[in-house]
């Protein structure tokens, strides 16, 4: 397949050229996904921990719901956020549609269930180990949340990376709510879709390789940090 | 750490017909007893007798299926301060020092006092050299000493120890036993489970003997070891009961 | 060591916060821009890259292009999410005005559709005189035909052509893809199908494989683009002033010249025809 032959050359040339347009796209991709993951973490980590600690009627339903939402198709998330942010929608007056902020919102919707569900699972396991000791120390459930989140930190790095992977790889949602506007809301994935539509498959695949490399670098860095700390702390 | 510890009241704990049923199995069967006085109490019995369960019920980690666990109030009008040391110490994924300051934080010790107090406790238990090491990579003996140091900082009026030495080597066992004596000397009431006869003979002032979820004997240690009242206890002391 | 950790943590937090803040400020960077809902054909050919800088130099107004199918473009404008609309479905545009969503529609430019197919032309449409005849031949031969099937302007035009050829397009050979022009061309190239495309997208398209233009030039393939001035009454929050400048610039001498000047691979693709 000639497209793939050229793709690696194209990817290399893209990176070496330091094309400012490409750099803007890369930076925006990272910025949007990092911001979305950051916001999602602020909400999902405590939420997931709370779901792990509290037993209440309907908890099972919520747990299943979050698990199911992990597989939420990005287009559906995008469409939902589009309808919310559209001028005709309930949040229309903020004028967020077709801005990077809208893309962040859409990615938060996609990432939140993943981080919540996986955090709940990790915290549940850790709490199984800690429960008696923490009860013996007389800790309330609320006060256990920060303790458990901190002590589960190495596992949670992987959880957050899963969220970041989903955010940076998805295209359906950001395409709809961002509009793939050149220089404003064009990110790696929507650029790939555009180049594919133009039939410039080597460029599309080249961009794909650049994206994959970026995600790999982020994952690699987190892995090294996590493993080193894990080995040190046992 | 020579602070004043309040003498505990004469009748801190009373169990009244306490049963614990799990998945249709009666694991503790109508146990009634009073723990009073100041001696070190050892809960003995073969594996599966219900020793750990009884301690968890006393400490409040579990609720009895039937019957009541009643703590008398101490001088402050509250149930006495308690701590528990487990067979496999549960330490947080942080440094030894941080494990101690953490426990102090929970009991409301002002921030500035936490580190000095933690260092004192580390010193007391011979752990200063490993203060900054992650707690989870310490040896079994060090981990158990750290768990004891943590309990020490909480200044418990009652300390529960659930088979604290069963996974340790002789030197580490000695350190734990010394610590237990130390706690007791400071006025802490000791309730400890063990299936090790020699250890019980070394430490016990009072013995509670369980078998099959039932309270078989509750007597002063001297009496228990010299003239056990039941055939089961006799068999246990003679090493004829498999544990 | 603890100091270093703290420093790192603060740096990371600061970076994160900086990113979030800069994202916020970007959104309200400069209010002097409009959002234009338009079609993929104009965007993908590179027309906007060529003419928007000229408009911006003239007026200081930037244009953010959201390139979607014509059906979706109408929907975006109907919901009040775009300030301006540039599409190619004259009938639909007139209906849009009649429905009160737009106050004015102006012809801006034309390009044309071409019928593309595998170069060995199994249906023989190269011999056809009219596009009606070409379509009939494809249906007759039951040669694979890739239709966008996405309610875009091109899709609507294609359906009108089938109707005028008196053919009901269905059957194994007629593949409705539900995709944009580019993906449809990619698919057609993959399965050696006939396909109707606007010339601009075709010229910009690189993954042609075995495909070639087999029929072109019939007036029925004329593809008119129109600019719509959206109703201020319907959506008062839109940037009507700026949008009106764009609308008027497009049909002005400067705008028309800019469109005429745009070439791709040495070909002029859009022919200004404002009246």
From TrEMBL, chain A:
<dbReference type="InterPro" id="IPR049783">
    <property type="entry name" value="ABC_perm_TupB-like"/>
</dbReference>
<dbReference type="InterPro" id="IPR035906">
    <property type="entry name" value="MetI-like_sf"/>
</dbReference>
<keyword id="KW-0813">Transport</keyword>
<comment type="similarity">
    <text>Belongs to the binding-protein-dependent transport system permease family.</text>
</comment>
<keyword id="KW-0472">Membrane</keyword>
<feature type="domain" description="ABC transmembrane type-1">
    <location>
        <begin position="26"/>
        <end position="222"/>
    </location>
</feature>
<feature type="transmembrane region" description="Helical">
    <location>
        <begin position="203"/>
        <end position="225"/>
    </location>
</feature>
<feature type="transmembrane region" description="Helical">
    <location>
        <begin position="148"/>
        <end position="165"/>
    </location>
</feature>
<dbReference type="Pfam" id="PF00528">
    <property type="entry name" value="BPD_transp_1"/>
</dbReference>
<dbReference type="GO" id="GO:0005886">
    <property type="term" value="C:plasma membrane"/>
</dbReference>
<feature type="transmembrane region" description="Helical">
    <location>
        <begin position="33"/>
        <end position="56"/>
    </location>
</feature>
<keyword id="KW-0812">Transmembrane</keyword>
<feature type="transmembrane region" description="Helical">
    <location>
        <begin position="63"/>
        <end position="85"/>
    </location>
</feature>
<dbReference type="GO" id="GO:0055085">
    <property type="term" value="P:transmembrane transport"/>
</dbReference>
<protein>
    <submittedName>
        <fullName>ABC transporter permease</fullName>
    </submittedName>
</protein>
From TrEMBL, chain B:
<keyword id="KW-1003">Cell membrane</keyword>
<dbReference type="InterPro" id="IPR017871">
    <property type="entry name" value="ABC_transporter-like_CS"/>
</dbReference>
<dbReference type="InterPro" id="IPR003593">
    <property type="entry name" value="AAA+_ATPase"/>
</dbReference>
<dbReference type="GO" id="GO:0005524">
    <property type="term" value="F:ATP binding"/>
</dbReference>
<protein>
    <recommendedName>
        <fullName>ABC transporter domain-containing protein</fullName>
    </recommendedName>
</protein>
<keyword id="KW-0472">Membrane</keyword>
<feature type="domain" description="ABC transporter">
    <location>
        <begin position="13"/>
        <end position="237"/>
    </location>
</feature>
<dbReference type="GO" id="GO:0005886">
    <property type="term" value="C:plasma membrane"/>
</dbReference>
<comment type="similarity">
    <text>Belongs to the ABC transporter superfamily.</text>
</comment>
<dbReference type="GO" id="GO:0016887">
    <property type="term" value="F:ATP hydrolysis activity"/>
</dbReference>
<dbReference type="InterPro" id="IPR027417">
    <property type="entry name" value="P-loop_NTPase"/>
</dbReference>
<dbReference type="InterPro" id="IPR003439">
    <property type="entry name" value="ABC_transporter-like_ATP-bd"/>
</dbReference>
<keyword id="KW-0813">Transport</keyword>
<dbReference type="Pfam" id="PF00005">
    <property type="entry name" value="ABC_tran"/>
</dbReference>
<dbReference type="InterPro" id="IPR050086">
    <property type="entry name" value="MetN_ABC_transporter-like"/>
</dbReference>
From TrEMBL, chain C:
<dbReference type="Pfam" id="PF12849">
    <property type="entry name" value="PBP_like_2"/>
</dbReference>
<dbReference type="InterPro" id="IPR024370">
    <property type="entry name" value="PBP_domain"/>
</dbReference>
<keyword id="KW-0732">Signal</keyword>
<protein>
    <submittedName>
        <fullName>Tungsten ABC transporter substrate-binding protein</fullName>
    </submittedName>
</protein>
<feature type="signal peptide">
    <location>
        <begin position="1"/>
        <end position="27"/>
    </location>
</feature>
<feature type="domain" description="PBP">
    <location>
        <begin position="31"/>
        <end position="253"/>
    </location>
</feature>
<dbReference type="InterPro" id="IPR052738">
    <property type="entry name" value="ABC-Tungstate_binding"/>
</dbReference>
């Amino acid at each position: 397949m000639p497209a793939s032959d050229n793709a690696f050359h194209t990817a290399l040339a893209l990176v070496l050229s330091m094309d400012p347009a490409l750099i803007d796209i890369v930076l925006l991709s990272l910025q949007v996904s990092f911001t979305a993951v950051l916001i999602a973490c602020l909400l999902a980590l405590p939420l997931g921990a709370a779901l792990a600690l509290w037993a209440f009627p309907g908890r099972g339903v919520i747990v299943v719901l979050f698990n199911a939402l992990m597989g939420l198709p990005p287009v559906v998330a995008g469409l939902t956020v589009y309808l919310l942010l559209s001028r005709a929608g309930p949040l229309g007056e903020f004028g967020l549609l077709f801005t990077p902020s809208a893309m962040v919102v859409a990615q938060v919707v996609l990432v939140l269930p993943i981080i919540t569900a996986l955090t709940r699972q990790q915290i549940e396991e850790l709490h199984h180990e800690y429960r008696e000791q923490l009860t013996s120390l007389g800790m309330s459930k609320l006060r256990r949340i920060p303790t458990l989140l901190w002590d589960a930190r190495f596992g949670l790095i992987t959880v957050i990376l899963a969220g970041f992977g989903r955010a940076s790889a998805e295209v359906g949602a950001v395409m709809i709510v961002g509009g793939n506007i050149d220089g404003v809301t064009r990110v790696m994935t929507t650029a790939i879709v555009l180049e594919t539509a133009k039939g410039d498959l080597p460029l599309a695949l080249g961009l794909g390789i650049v994206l994959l490399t970026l995600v790999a670098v982020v994952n690699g860095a987190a892995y090294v940090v996590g493993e080193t700390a894990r080995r040190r702390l046992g | 750490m020579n602070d004043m510890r309040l003498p505990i009241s004469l009748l801190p704990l009373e169990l009244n017909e306490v049963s614990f049923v799990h998945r249709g199995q009666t694991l503790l069967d109508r146990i009634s007893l009073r723990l009073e006085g100041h001696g070190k109490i050892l809960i003995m019995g073969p594996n599966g007798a219900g020793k750990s369960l009884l301690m968890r019920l006393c400490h409040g980690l579990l609720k009895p299926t039937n019957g009541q666990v009643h703590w008398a109030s101490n001088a402050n009008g509250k149930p006495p301060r308690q701590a528990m040391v487990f067979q496999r110490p549960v330490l947080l994924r942080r440094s030894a020092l941080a494990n101690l300051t953490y426990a102090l934080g929970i009991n409301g010790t002002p921030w500035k006092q936490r580190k000095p107090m933690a260092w004192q406790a580390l010193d007391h238990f011979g752990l200063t050299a490993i203060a900054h090491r992650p707690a989870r990579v310490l040896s079994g003996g060090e981990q158990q000493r750290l768990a004891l140091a943590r309990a020490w900082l909480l200044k418990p009026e009652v300390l529960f120890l659930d088979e604290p030495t069963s996974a340790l080597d002789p030197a580490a066992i000695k350190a734990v036993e010394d610590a237990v004596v130390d706690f007791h000397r400071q006025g802490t009431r000791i309730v400890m489970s063990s299936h090790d006869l020699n250890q019980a003979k070394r430490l016990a002032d009072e013995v509670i003997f369980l078998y099959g979820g039932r309270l078989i004997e509750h007597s002063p240690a001297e009496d228990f070891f010299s003239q056990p009242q039941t055939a089961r206890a006799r068999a246990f002391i003679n090493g004829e009961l498999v544990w | 060591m603890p100091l270093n950790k703290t420093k790192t943590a603060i740096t990371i937090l600061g970076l994160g916060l900086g990113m979030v803040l800069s994202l916020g400020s970007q959104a309200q960077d400069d209010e002097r821009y409009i959002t234009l809902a338009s079609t993929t054909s104009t965007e993908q050919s590179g027309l906007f890259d060529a003419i928007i800088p000229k408009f911006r130099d003239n007026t200081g107004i930037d244009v953010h292009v959201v390139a979607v199918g014509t059906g979706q473009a109408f929907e975006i404008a109907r919901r009040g999410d775009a300030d301006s609309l540039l599409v190619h479905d004259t009938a639909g545009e007139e209906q849009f005005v009649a429905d009160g969503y737009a106050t004015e529609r102006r012809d801006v430019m034309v390009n044309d559709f071409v019928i593309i197919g595998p170069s060995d032309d199994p249906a023989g449409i190269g011999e056809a005189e009219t596009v009606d005849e070409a379509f009939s031949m494809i249906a007759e031969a039951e040669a694979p035909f890739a239709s966008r099937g996405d309610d875009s302007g091109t899709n609507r035009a294609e359906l009108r052509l089938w109707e005028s050829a008196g053919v009901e397009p269905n059957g194994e050979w007629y593949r409705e893809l539900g995709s944009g022009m580019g993906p449809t061309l990619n698919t057609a190239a993959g399965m050696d199908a006939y396909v109707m495309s606007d010339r601009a997208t075709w010229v910009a398209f690189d993954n042609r494989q075995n495909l070639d233009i087999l029929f072109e030039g019939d007036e029925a393939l004329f593809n008119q683009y129109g600019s719509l001035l959206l109703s201020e009454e319907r959506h008062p929050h839109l940037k009507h002033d700026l949008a009106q400048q764009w609308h008027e610039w497009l049909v002005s001498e400067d705008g028309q010249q800019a469109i005429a000047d745009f070439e791709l691979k040495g070909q002029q693709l859009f022919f200004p025809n404002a009246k």
